[in-house]
Amino acid sequence: MNDLTPVRPAGPHDEFGGAPVRNLSRRGFLGVAAGALVLGVDLGRAPAAAQERAEGAAAIAPKPGTRVAAFLEMRPDGTVRLLSPFVEGGQGINTGLAQTIGEELDLDPARFLVECAPPGPDYAVVNGLRMTGGSFSTRSSFDTMRRLGATAREMLLRAAAARLAVPQDSLTTEDGRVVHAASGRSLGYGDLAAAALALQPRGDVPLKPSGSFRWIGQPVPRLDMRDKSTGRATYAIDIRLEGMLHAAVQHAPHLGTEPRTVANEAEIRAMPGIHSVHRLPGAVAVVADSWWRARKGAEALRVDWTSPAADGIATVSKTFSSSAMLAALQSSPEAGIAAEQEGDVASAFARASSIVEAEYDAPYLAHAQLEPPSAVARFAADGSLDLWLPNQMPELFQQVAAATAGVQPAQVRIHSPMLGGFFGRHFYYGPGNPFPQAILLARATGRPVRVLWSREEEFGMDALRPLGFARFRAALGGDGMPVALQSTAVGEGPIGRWFGALFKSPVDSSVVEGLDKKPYAIPNRRTDYVKVLHPVTIAFWRSVGHSMNDYFYESYLDEVAAAGGKDPFALRAALVKDSPRHRVLLQAVADAAGGWKAGKFRAEDGTERARGVAMASPFGSETATIAEVSLKDGEARVHDLWIAIDPGRVVNPAIVKRQVESAAALGLSATLLEQVVYEGGQRQARNFDAYPILDRERMPRVHVTIVESGAPMGGIGEPGLPGVPPAVVNAVAVLTGRRVRSLPLAKTPLSGV
To answer: What's the mean pLDDT in 737-748?
Structure first.
């Protein structure tokens, strides 16, 4: 997700960053080791109300046990357990949290056990919401996690001073031990945990100066590396319960239609291992003793479906197509709601020496992740519900699950396994999620049920990145420099679709981000938002609006440079000359690439190549990207990507590098190959054979440069992507002499070299 600023005035650090640490050791949480020191974070709510909520959670939901934010448990055996507000899904957040707390606690991060916390209001750490996404996790929790570790260390020092009968300032710590150097005595943290139970945390514990950091800023190995390498990591698809049944589904061919009859239901019920056949909203499910048998049954179903209604939200007619949707966006009104306005745009255009206009578009995109969607539901004898599912917002899923099951939210226990990747796939998207089906089937069968979607069902039901469209006009002065730039974003975004009730702004930030708030010193600017609804299920996708809007803007900026007779790199340098942060970043990427090369040139292997450049400001970080590209058989071949990223400051540079590399791969895949095409109201691609993604042959070398400017901490998981599409397309324009304004490149034969 992107700009998650609710109506109430709060910054990304306001609620979580300034919260006091509390000693919760005597609250009697189930599942906590006897004699353990337990610390939590008060998110600024009334203490009595917070205590009531947490204690209620412990009583109602003994598994997994607590609703206390940033629940840190120092055990008598010296190990540390952290119940994290965030979900681990490959982004390395568990390792980063262990590094951050371990730094101040003076404990090796490798000794931490990090688990995802259960649902509860006390974990609403991102501006009153709890979610893992938008590259928010580390930057929203960094200061508090440091204070949590520092507070725990100070309490252990106090306990040791009393035990050893020495002044507290005569003690130091060393990787899990309190040391009294004068006498040579030392005590392990586990030995002191019980004594610390009676202590109250101090609110004025100093933090380490950054110059003394031992683990923050270092490439600490991932905590989940061994389990992933040995196959021990458990994902939702791996969950097995006693007596569990397996379900496969056949979804309606058109969104918004329902099953009328199943012509061969008796025949399906007679197949080996089949337990039952069930009609569900928009689908028919087959339940069996194995998923393979369930799938064979689902594939054999002959279902008569209702006819699709007219186009509209949550229904797709037989006449709907992606080309018709693009035409609707293109024919939308010129004027919209101002998302950004600076200077006098109209006067600047009236005085312009020349005007440059262009339109850009980008297609619907699938998440196309390797982890198939799945969910496991089990009702207990008391009517409560356990639900195992991949998710990025446990509390939201708890609410939806409770409504589906007809129970109270407190009766729903959400278990959040490690995710097989994020990419925005694991938010709640109505028909794009399988867990309501698992709940209904578990209720109907009286047994635990696992629903697993086949690749074909996932490609048919996945919530999509919206198809995007933007218009541009730029006014140039007599010197060829832009004096005004007007952009218009047309469409609908996932913020407005799924969180419109929380965010009251008339402008959907997920539609305009990447067009507004650019770092360039163009004196007169305006960005408009024109809302046009999509009838399909839309979703967050890695880097959200930035994934297409930075392509639109940065490609168009090269057109502006050409119209004004400017080199594209030199134009950007001129436009950021008064911003030291952006100037340094642009120079850093050029230095990493061995200098900027304008125009076509011959590489050592004899291929004719060109370079493209782009800048982006996604999710609180800044990036600059250079791509080196050649053409072969009418296709773009990307040889190198240089990406300089400035996230302000860094916890784990190895994780930053990997995240930027993976984002670059996804961005390049979308640039070259990916698109979801609708014809006749149906998606044409139902598996990877018709939806190609980046392969090894197309994967370039990726060179990552990390610049720590000291600015407020930004995100990491998504910022590496937005600069890739425009940098590649800008290089292609140099090679072909033609501007590609519609992705992916695969649909446009590249010739004319």
So the answer is: 95
Average pLDDT for residues 439-446, to the nearest whole number?
98
Task: Kindly state whether residues 676 and 573 are assigned to the same domain.
Answer: yes
Asked whether the CA dihedral 417, 419, 422, 424 is positive or negative, the reply is negative
Residue 96 structure tokens: 């980063």
- Which residue is it, tokens 């939702």? 236
φ, ψ dihedrals at 47, nearest 5° = -55, -40
Give residue 163's domain range. Answer: 14-229
Position 603 in a domain: yes
List phi, psi (to 5°) of 109: -55, -25
Mean pLDDT calculated for residue range 169-193: 94
Of how many residues is the chain composed?
753
DSSP assigned state of 698: G
Q: What is the mean pLDDT of the chain?
A: 89
User: How confident is the model over 663-701, as pLDDT tens digits?
Assistant: 999 999 999 999 999 999 999 999 999 999 999 999 999
Name 708's Cβ contacts closer than 8 Å, sequence gap at least 6. 646, 647, 648, 649, 650
- Which residues have C-beta within 8 Å of that of residue 513, sequence separation ≥ 6? 2, 3, 544, 545, 546, 549, 618
User: What is the Cα gyration radius of the chain?
Assistant: 27
Nearest to 108 by CA among 228, 23, 223: 223
Looking at the domain assignment, is residue 432 inside a domain? yes
- Single out the residue of 107, 112, 243 nearest to residue 188, CA to CA: 107
Q: How far apart are CA 152 and CA 59, in angstroms?
A: 26
Mean pLDDT of 83-105: 92
Bridge partner list, 475? 355, 484
Q: Is 458 a domain residue?
A: no
Q: Taking Cα atoms as reference points, which of 41, 46, 48 lies closest to residue 69? A: 41
